Amino acid sequence: xxxxxxxxxxxxxxxxxxxxxxxxxxxxxxxxxxxxxxxxxxxxxxxxxxxxxxxxxxxxxxxxxxxxxxxxxxxxxxxxxxxxxxxxxxxxxxxxxxxxxxxxxxxxxxxxxxxxxxxxxxxxxxxxxxxxxxxxxxxxxxxxxxxxxxxxxxxxxxxxxxxxxxxxxxxxxxxxxxxxxxxxxxxxxxxxxxxxxxxxxxxxxxxxxxxxxxxxxxxxxxxxxxxxxxxxxxxxxxxxxxxxxxxxxxxxxxxxxxxxxxxxxxxxxxxxxxxxxxxxxxxxxxxxxxxxxxxxxxxxxxxxxxxxxxxxxxxxxxxxxxxxxxxxxxxx
Amino acid sequence: xxxxxxxxxxxxxxxxxxxxxxxxxxxxxxxxxxxxxxxxxxxxxxxxxxxxxxxxxxxxxxxxxxxxxxxxxxxxxxxxxxxxxxxxxxxxxxxxxxxxxxxxxxxxxxxxxxxxxxxxxxxxxxxxxxxxxxxxxxxxxxxxxxxxxxxxxxxxxxxxxxxxxxxxxxxxxxxxxxxxxxxxxxxxxxxxxxxxxxxxxxxxxxxxxxxxxxxxxxxxxxxxxxxxxxxxxxxxxxxxxxxxxxxxxxxxxxxxxxxxxxxxxxxxxxxxxxxxxxxxxxxxxxxxxxxxxxxxxxxxxxxxxxxxxxxxxxxxxxxxxxxxxxxxxxxx
Lengths: 332, 332
Hints:
- The structure is a homodimer of 332-residue chains.
- The first copy, chain A, has helices at residues 3-24, 32-42, 49-60, 69-89, 101-104, 107-123, 134-160, 166-191, 196-223, 226-229, 235-238, 244-252, 256-267, 276-286, 289-307, 315-328, and strands spanning 94-95, 98-99.
- Chain A is mostly helical.
- In chain A, a hairpin with a 2-residue loop joins β1 and β2 (98-99).
- The longest helix of chain A has 28 residues, at 196-223.
């Protein structure tokens, strides 16, 4: 068995623990009108990268990954809270190949499901008597909650804004996507009682991972298979999202036809019908923005690896490297 | 100056401190699309009974009320988070004589404003180094968040349910209204380092206050002046809410006309037009349910007073008595 298989097995082991805990959280709880959608939402599978990262980071600084399970699950709940609310705001009908909560039930239920989830998330964080770093953990968690909301607000601002720069975009995904991964790394590192240097390295790692991950997601919106994506191909473009691809294309487009296609996209707040999708894909191909996205993501994946070079080597640090290689395979 | 005036002056002093802190919380924060509705929401005035109660309860057990200001503001934020989300779910256009956030902006903004507010609320709770009871405070706060969501879920369940009993109703308002007042009392009592007995008394006080307060609110929906109420007279009935008055009327109605009016209310999920309002008010008057509500609220106000009789007397305990008498005046 090679090292990759070992890490895959370890990842799956953590994943099983996370799933088992998620399964238990609201079992038999009342009212059912609240906890049935809660259960549905958190039991939709997925990579569970945030809780697993929390656990690995505890190990990376010399702690026991299992001690970080509860906090990891808390972060996964916080993530799911953002998903269920974002799906309402974006009017998304599908998430991971299943109906979204507001579609399957209704908006009011989806709002409330997300709300109560935040409470359950906080209830999983350690008290002072359970962990000497409980203050740091609460603080990081709350910071994550606030920034992920700010990220979503910036993302919504982009709907009204025609001149979104790459810097605007990076600031937005820094908060909306990278922050919660940073929170996971920081809390995991605190559970493992890492030094300030350890925590900084892990946080940078997670931030870069998050940025790369989001740019890759923007790419996968057009290059993935629908079954793999769990939602419609090109959904970002139909929703009028200013993705990395759109922003790069706006930077690079020179001829009038290309500019018109992009301006139509901006003026109509997204593609109007299916027939426009192949044109946009053709434009992106000619302007090489798919390659730009790949190389941008690669740069950040590389930065992530470099940021943990100073940490004392152990199998968990190796696993953080493996994690990047593994995520980087998503588009190939 | 009599004692009542003293307490009024003290209440106003606490209120000013709460308002001043609320005013500062999101000043100059970005993005404006998020923090401008946040500022609007929390600066709409009101009695601020939750933060003031938090402060009084700290004093009641021998602590300094000012030490409980941050926690009180945290609870006020949590309360406002529930208001902004409930208003979306109930499609309420007005709150305290002003447009609700989802009306003035839009639903997505209102969802996100509530969400980020929870983060700001948590960030105001004391760390371990700031207060030895930080664990208890966090725990009470999170419990409050979860239960207030459960209360709202029960309330929404009532929309679909025709046979809501008085017990169902009391369980719902216990969670939806009383719980957050209990949270305020419990956290204030912890800030003041009250004994377990102190905390139990204060919690019972706040619970009874909350129950009485909600029944009184149900009554005021029909008996208050619109300007005082800050929303349309009879709004609960137009929204089809199963209030104390409706439930009591359903219990007591004997003649067929009365039963038909109530059944129409149930079947149509509320009053269909303005012309039905006087008929319903007439029905309530004939069945004496207004008096039932008054005497029910009185019983709970009295229970609240009795629950703090065992506490060592001081001016803050007296103020808790005054507070009840003052709230009890609302309907007269």
